[in-house]
Amino acid sequence: MALLQLIARRLIQLAGVLLGISIVTFLLLHMAPGDPARLLAGDRASAETIAVIRSQYGLDLPLWRQFLTYLMNLFAGDIGQSLRFQRPVSQLIQQFMWPTLFLTVYVVCLAVPPTVALAIMSARKPGGTADQVIRLIGIAGLTIPVFWLGIMMSRLFGVSLGWFPVSGYGVGISEHLHHLFLPALSTAIWLVPVLTQSLRAALIEKTTADFVTAARAQGASEREIFWRTILPNAVLPTLNLLGVMVAFMIGGAIIVETIYAVPGLGTLMIGALLGRDYYVVQGLTLVFAMSTVLVTLAVDLLTAFIDPRVRL
Amino acid sequence: MSRTEDVTRPLLEVENLTVGLGEFDAVKAVSFHLQPGEILGIVGESGSGKSVTCRAAMGLLPGAARASGRVTLEGRDLLTLGEADWCAIRGRDIGMIFQNPASHLDPLRRIGKQIAAPMVRHLGIGRREGMRRAIQLLDDVGIREPEKRARSYPHEFSGGMKQRAMIAAAIGCGPKLLIADEPTTALDVTVQARILGLLKDLNRERGLAIILISHDLGVVADICSRVVVMRHGEVVEQGPIDDVINRPQHPYTRLLIDSQPSRKTYPGTKTEPEQAAPLLSVEKLSVSFPVRRDLIGGLASNGESFLALDGIDLQIAAGETVGIVGESGSGKSTLARAIIRQNRPSEGAIRLDGQDVHALGGDALTGFRRRVQMVFQNPYDSLNPRMTIAEAVAEPIWRHGLADRRTAQMQANELLEMVELPRALGDRMPRQLSGGQCQRVGLARALALKPQLLIADEITSALDVTTQAQILELLLRLQRERALTLLYISHDLSVVSGICQRVYVFKGGRIVENGSARQVLSAPQDPYTQELVRSLAQLGPVNPAPVFLPV
Amino acid sequence: MANASTLPEAAPPVRGMTLSMMVAMAILGGWLFLALTGPLIAPHEPDAIDIMNMLSPPSAEHWFGTDQVGRDIFSRVLFASRVDLFLCVIGVLPPLLIGTTIGLLSGYFGGVVDSLFMRVYDLTVAFPFFVLVLAIVGVLGPGLVNFIIALTLVGWVSYARLVRAEVLTIRESEYIQAAKCLGYPPVAILTRHVLPNAIGPIIAYAVSDAVLVMLAGASFGFLGMGAQPPLAEWGVMIADGQAFVQQAWWICLFPGLAAISLGLGFAFLGDGLGQMQRRQATA
Fold it and tell me: Which of A13, A218, A232 sits opposite B169 (nearest CB)?
């Protein structure tokens, strides 16, 4: 019951954020220097073409009318037409989204087990040798440019050793797994340190928590205390961070996909940016924002499910 | 001690226990013993080593600590036990409860499960049976609707209920000994009295031996038969409670007893107030806070609000010392904050010499700031951690243009001297001082503007009892010397009635009783005040009944 | 714990440098030195094309080898350090200043400003950071200046949020109540009492943000949305070398290592600052 209330409340909150997102993406197109009609028509277009485009896209109307039109179109599921592909942006996104989704899930699966293992090893003896080494590796991992790591790994494992393909997506799950291994790994290498640091800090904090002392005073063994008391309490902050990071990764996919030529949303975005295909940029930004909001919502609900205090 | 006890083997014996934490010994050669079914008090101020001693007896010392000596439970040496043996004893033979029940319960697990866990662990019973017994235990410790409450989470419990739940979890396996480490310190006085009553009942009905650790001699005297007094990691005195309290041998014990607010008399405050127009008058004051809805931020405030103060009427005459007593949430601090204009009244007015305080502006407001000042509760939090204390005391002087910055600095040094702080401390940061020293700085800062009315909000509640006595003496000396009007706010009726002429008793945002301090303490009218007076854990009258006196 | 009746000894100074701090100083100092003296040290002109020495591996003449048009990688890495170091500073400072100011006001005064800010915050975090910056740069047009503009537009929000959270706690502390009660003007309370106590975590965050900014800058250079060729910038150099990575790994390797080492400098600085703050808190 309380959970339902929370969902309802979050959905109302969501409506505001979604409206804001639509305003930002709408304004994005209008931030471009110069005449939007000229940009849409391309550099070599004649004055007549521009005029046609202007009335066709409603660019001669006042801004708020244009926004209303945009909003109506959004509700109808129409997020514009790609100038380059001459297809609706929504179709393009449907076509390109699967590799990106697959990659994101893949990264999370690759990143979570080592995170938990490393954090536990680290937190077992804070300041010990294992902890120091893990901390140093973590600091280093954070500073490696993902695109550089991607290039270097594709050269080593792909070209020199020939273990993995260095581009494309393949057909079927096993080929996906094989093709996307290097892209997923290079992202995970960056993600693991961030999550490990958070989980380690939370574990250490909870280890000294009063309720752990109390559990010990009631005769619980160290093993039981760790699994039943410390870990559940420590997972919460990391779960939130994971949510933020997944959102971050959907964006970060742009770089990895470019390097490994994965036909995903990132590749689509870069192509659109370089080709000045603004409606695709706008549509993708909208979709990225929506998925971030959804991920955050999912994490919030999961947190509320674990932590009774959130359900107020 | 020299008294010959009955010859039964002691339940717990501590011999020459020394606990080292790093370089320094937190506990030095401590010895005491506990008979079955006895309640033993260990009393001492912060840093006396009383908690460390008991944690050593539970094997709960931090990893870096070294313990030597002997601790035996029914003849079995505890200090040499391995971890597995410890796990079999903790929660089974010895139970423990803690100072802050809120932080000692796992926030993610239901109360019933947490109470059942030790029984499932130690007694080999099933989960269902464990839950059944947990509900019974909740009933035993006086929690209403135990079946429903067993399904609650800790955050749904009040402070007193959490401590009852902790007790239920600790006694579930029928231990022989319960160690209670400051079990009532975080609770309101009336709740404290009920929890102490529960402990007494458990002792009587189940023959449970209890070690009660407390900083409060009054609490210990209330329920213990013997007491151990500790200071700086050493036992300074131990013996039957009446002997120790009535014939203390050690000077420190004597100081401790003399510092008890109920024993202490403060000179020169009981003069009758002049019959004049009140300096400060509070008229039908109500303060309400909107109940925060995180929904659409502050946009949709749907009129729901919490009434922290509800129609308060109160007068303070010049030169008077007025006390306000109340438990947490009674609105006493809200009143203080309303007087210094940090809470806006929703109704009513506060007048200083007839002028509405909340209508002031410009120079009149500056004038008001100079006339009314306040000292705060938390010694460390009330001083900016990034300023030396001399800077902190000098700042009001130069900001109000009473002197240039250099002269202000000199005046600050004089103020520090006035509150009996050595001049050399002026360059220290607050965290380099003790709590009592910080409160002195707070007092000096408040007096820098030479105010007429001083508000003291729980200024000693974070301090040890001997420090409290010193601060109160200082406060009253300054009041005499500077002809201050004093509004003293505290949860502790005995302190308030000890230093104030008139007392207002607050409950739930209303005044339930007011009158002269003596009258409120000796003949309380309102049922709540009566309960408050009953709850006072006191050492008893200064001259005990002759029965206890040896001839 | 010192007991109440004796004066604590003069507290030990908490200034002692941690190992992380010293490593950070060495790395950052080294890069600053190289960036300042780059033109004097560099053995070659960074943009000098040498068709005779295309894609030549590291040697005594070209320490880090040459790229596809024969430019000396070592010299280009040196010159690029000026761009990337500059990026770190200029990419962090405007969001830091704007964010701190807004966070202070929003947290201390609350009210409409605060509600408004929180809505902006909710909205901004709804976008993946990288996507929003990329979209803004894409629309404004690729280039370093537009990158900094986009970074500031998006980045100030995190600083403001962090400062606001600090201020919300500090605002409730008794020394702020005391300052109000003593009638200090709001500006004095903000600058002398609130800001000095709020700034620690912000500085630590800014340092770790510098790593992110540097990586983002290099990434944008790599994607062709940041620094534009032929300007020597580590990301741009890596992008240049990507096509030749099979024959000439050194074109990509060295700029990447340079970026990592600069990043390590900032990361260790952040680590050291964090350690010192923790030490101060427990001292």
Answer: A218
Q: Which residues of B176-193 are buried (b: 16+ CB within 10 A; e: fewer)?
A: bbbbbbbbbebbbbebbb
Contact (CB, 8 A) for B533 and B521:
yes
Which one of B388, B434, B471 would you mutate to disrupt binding with C, by most C Cβ within 10 Å of its Cβ? B434
Tell whether B474 lies on the interface with A, counting CB pairs under 8 A. Answer: no
**Are the Cβ atoms of C184 and B435 closer than 8 angstroms?**
no
pLDDT in 10s for each residue of chain B, 551 residues: 444 445 578 899 999 999 988 788 889 999 999 999 999 999 998 889 999 999 998 988 887 788 899 999 988 898 888 888 999 999 999 999 998 888 999 999 999 999 999 999 999 899 999 999 999 999 988 888 999 999 999 988 988 899 999 999 999 998 999 999 999 888 888 888 889 999 999 999 989 999 999 998 888 988 999 999 999 999 999 999 999 989 999 999 999 988 888 777 776 554 555 556 789 999 999 999 876 554 434 444 455 678 889 999 999 999 899 999 998 889 999 999 999 999 999 999 999 998 999 999 889 999 999 999 999 999 999 999 999 999 999 999 999 999 999 999 999 999 999 999 998 899 999 989 999 999 999 999 999 999 999 999 999 988 898 999 999 999 999 999 998 999 999 998 888 988 899 999 999 899 999 999 888 888 899 999 998 888 876 665 443 333 333 33
- Determine whether the interchain pair B436/C4 forms a contact, defined as Cβ–Cβ distance below 8 Å: yes
Closest CA to A99 of A292, A264, A224, A243: A264
Max CA separation in chain B (angstroms): 77
One domain, residues A64 and A129: no
* Whether residues A148 and A30 fall in one domain: no
Shortest CA gap B167–chain A (Å): 11
Q: Write down which chains contact chain A via at least 3 CB pairs under 8 A.
A: B, C
Structural domains in chain B, CATH included, are 1-82+215-262+542-551 (3.40.50.300), 280-535 (3.40.50.300)
Helix (H) or strand (E) holding B452: none
Same-domain check for residues A170 and A269: yes
Minimal C-alpha gap between B456 and chain C (Å): 12
Interchain contact A10–B (C-beta under 8 A): no
Query: B298 and C283: CB-CB below 8 Å?
Result: no
DSSP string, B211-223: EEEES-HHHHHHH
Contact C267 A139 (CB under 8 A): yes
Alpha carbons A162 and A304: distance in angstroms, whole number: 46
Q: Enumerate domains of chain C plus CATH numbers.
A: 65-282 (1.10.3720.10)
Instruction: Give the domain-ending residue among A31, A49, A75.
Output: A75
**Residue A84, domain member (yes or no):** no
- A217 and A176 within one domain: yes
> What's the CATH number where A147 sits?
1.10.3720.10
pTM: 0.84
Q: Which two tokens stand for residue B403?
A: 């002197």
Range of the domain at A34: 2-75
Q: How many independent structural domains does chain A possess?
A: 2
Asked if residue A161 and residue A29 are part of one domain, the reply reads no
Q: What number of residues does chain A have?
A: 312
Task: Look up the ipTM and state it.
Answer: 0.84
Same domain, yes or no: A251 and A204: yes
- Chain A within 8 Å of B127 (Cβ-Cβ)? no
Chain C segment 219-238 residues within 8 A of A by beta carbon are 219, 222-225, 235, 238
DSSP symbol at B330? S
Option in A16, A220, A309 nearest B121 (CB): A220
Name every residue whose Cβ is closer than 8 Å to that of residue B194 and which is 6 or more positions away in sequence. B142, B160
Residue of C119, C172, C181 to mutate, interface with B, max B Cβ within 10 Å: C181
- Chain A contact for C31 (CB, 8 A cutoff): no
Mutate to test the interface with B, among C119, C175, C190 (most CBs of B within 10 A): C175
Predicted confidence at residue C282, as pLDDT, reads 64
pLDDT tens by residue, B14-72: 999 999 887 888 899 999 999 999 999 999 988 899 999 999 989 888 877 888 999 99
| Cα A232 to Cα A214, A224, B108, B154, B192, distances in angstroms | 16, 12, 8, 16, 32
